[in-house]
Design brief:
- The complex is a heterodimer of chains A (256) and B (222).
- Chain A has 256 residues and is mostly helical.
- Chain A has one domain (2-253).
- Chain A is 75% helix and 0% strand.
- In chain A, helix 6 (139-163) packs parallel to helix 10.
- Chain A starts with 5 loop residues before the first helix and ends with a helix.
- Chain B is built from eight helices and six strands; from the N terminus they run αβαβαααβαβαββα.
- The longest helix of chain B is centred in the last third of the chain and has 16 residues, at 158-173.
- Chain B is globular and about 50 Å long.
- Chain B is an alpha/beta fold.
- Chain B has a six-stranded mixed β-sheet, sandwiched between helices.
- In chain B, strand 5 and strand 6 (202-208) form a beta hairpin.
- Chain B has helices at residues 2-13, 44-52, 84-94, 99-113, 128-142, 158-173, 185-191, 209-221; strands at 33-37, 68-72, 146-150, 177-181, 194-199, 202-208.
- Chain A binds chain B through residues 6-7, 10-11, 13-15, 18, 21-22, 25-26, 90-97, 250, 253-254, and chain B through 49, 52-56, 68, 70-73, 75-76, 79-82, 86, 89-90, 93-99, 150.
Chain lengths: 256, 222
């Protein structure tokens, strides 16, 4: 992949930093907004569900925050990635740069926010008395898997968005459906049909949330085989999505 | 309403192909300043973008032996509400420079653009002329072997124009190639060794600048 050239790394780094700064540029609260969204979601969902869906779940506030933060990264990351090619059209039409750098840097900028949100989560963990454990050393690996997933989706969506402006609308509807069919604010019911169970586990976000919750709430190492399989699946997905991107990129440049 | 719907779907399916460039056969020499002239829509920007590697030609081949700098469109530098300094570092990185190289060229860029007092100001407070000068300065300082300039407005006072001309002549002495698409026939006449006249995507004339300009003027009269 051409993106691993030294000057391309500098390019992605610079674009990421500027995308990150740009998100809250001009606002009064600035960067605080990035942290405020998940915190507000936490408060609302906790108030709504802690007595019912959250009843059997120990440390429901942490359980919830993990789900919210991971879901937020998927949602915000793919939305920024989706818009990145269109937003960067002035540059792409006039300067020759690896186009994948534009998508990558948009997603990485959201990833930086995600890392800060995880720090806030860390604060909650300390406050709740759960404490840290050696299993947390696997958290970067879980983050990496999700990052690759978000990049893969963004590569395809960013191209589709140039051809069909509806892409954003359709994707956000799918995200809304996904939010309710992923155990973000509830745990997977025990007595459901095998089909429903499979549907839950086929959802990569379910797996990623399970990994994170096993590490943080139960302080256990998730089954390494599961993590490895997830990683390989996401790598394969990235390869396919990158191939699609390369096929479409020359066509989209003339439509910008 | 039904008819409107059918028309709408019909429009979606119709695909109009516009041929922006038609059989252009061109060889540009190292150290040359080539001017590309022609009316609006003649394909000047498209040709520059193919040379820059932004567009791929539908057919035919295109080869370039040296590193190509960007096509300059002055609107780029006021893309973000960042300071001039941040813009220079960002666009330097986009042009393929390392942070160290940008640091080395930073003062020269500010000096050439004549914006020393405004270095920490946001780009949006600059006048259009200042933005054009900044864009030109970034492009020229970050160019390696080939510089492409699209619809360059040599904006600003005579002092700046003199600076620009000097730099482009310096490029020529250093055996760097410049390809300049412009509507300003005076600039093209003064700067370029050869010129290419495009009209409706076709190459009408290629040769000595004065002759090609003459052909263009005759074309305009018709």
């Amino acid at each position: 992949m051409q993106i691993f050239d030294r000057k391309h790394i500098n390019l992605v780094r610079q674009l990421t930093i500027f995308n990150f700064k740009l998100r809250d540029q001009g606002t009064v609260l600035g960067f605080i907004w990035t942290l405020l969204h998940p915190f507000l979601m936490l408060m609302i969902l906790y108030m709504l569900f802690s007595k019912r869906l959250g009843r059997g779940i120990e440390h429901y506030e942490i359980y919830l925050l993990i789900g919210i933060v991971q879901w937020n990264f998927l949602s915000a990351g793919t939305n920024e990635g989706l818009k990145s090619i269109m937003n960067g059209r002035l540059i792409l039409r006039n300067i020759r740069i690896p186009r994948v750098a534009i998508v990558l840097s948009s997603v990485l900028a959201v990833c930086i926010s995600f890392l800060f949100e995880l720090l806030v989560l860390g604060g909650f963990i300390v406050f709740s008395g759960i404490g840290f454990s050696p299993a947390m050393l696997l958290i970067p690996f879980v983050i990496l898997i999700q990052l690759l997933l978000v990049i893969s989706i963004s590569l395809v969506l960013s191209c589709l968005n140039v051809y069909f402006k509806d892409t954003g609308h359709i994707w956000n509807i799918l995200l809304k459906i996904g939010f309710f069919t992923t155990p973000v604010f509830y745990s997977i019911p025990m007595f459901i049909s095998k089909t429903k169970m499979t549907a839950y586990y086929l959802n990569p976000m379910t797996q990623l949330m399970i990994f994170m919750r096993q590490i943080i709430l139960f302080k256990t190492i998730p089954p390494l085989m599961n993590m490895l399989i997830m990683f390989l699946i996401v790598l394969a997905l990235l390869a396919v999505c990158y191939w699609i991107f390369k096929k479409l990129e020359d066509g989209i440049i003339e439509r910008l | 309403m039904f008819r409107a719907m059918i028309n709408g779907i019909g429009n979606l399916l119709k695909h109009k192909t516009i041929c922006a460039l038609d059989k252009i056969d061109l060889c540009i020499n190292k150290g040359e300043i080539l001017g590309i002239i022609g009316p609006n829509g003649s394909g000047k920007s498209t040709l520059l973008r193919i040379i820059a590697g932004i567009y791929k030609p539908t057919s035919g081949t295109f080869q370039v032996k040296d590193k190509v700098a960007s096509v300059l469109q002055t609107k780029i530098v006021n893309f973000w509400e960042l300071s001039i300094k941040q813009n220079i570092f960002l666009f330097g990185a986009i042009m393929g420079l390392s942070r160290k190289e940008i640091c080395e060229k930073y003062d020269k860029i500010i000096d050439l653009a004549g914006l020393s007092e405004f270095a920490n100001a946001e780009v949006r407070v600059l006048s259009e002329g200042m933005k054009d000068r900044l864009a030109f300065a970034i492009s020229v300082e970050t160019a390696r072997d080939i510089l492409l300039l699209d619809e360059l407005v040599l904006a600003g006072d005579n002092k700046f124009r003199e600076k620009c001309f000097k730099i482009l002549m310096q490029f020529k002495r250093e055996q760097k190639t410049v390809i300049l698409a412009s509507h300003d026939l005076g600039d093209v006449n003064e700067l370029c060794d050869r010129a290419l006249l495009l009209n409706n995507g076709k190459a009408i004339a290629l040769g000595k600048t004065k002759e090609v300009i003459g052909t263009y003027l005759k074309l305009l009269e018709r």
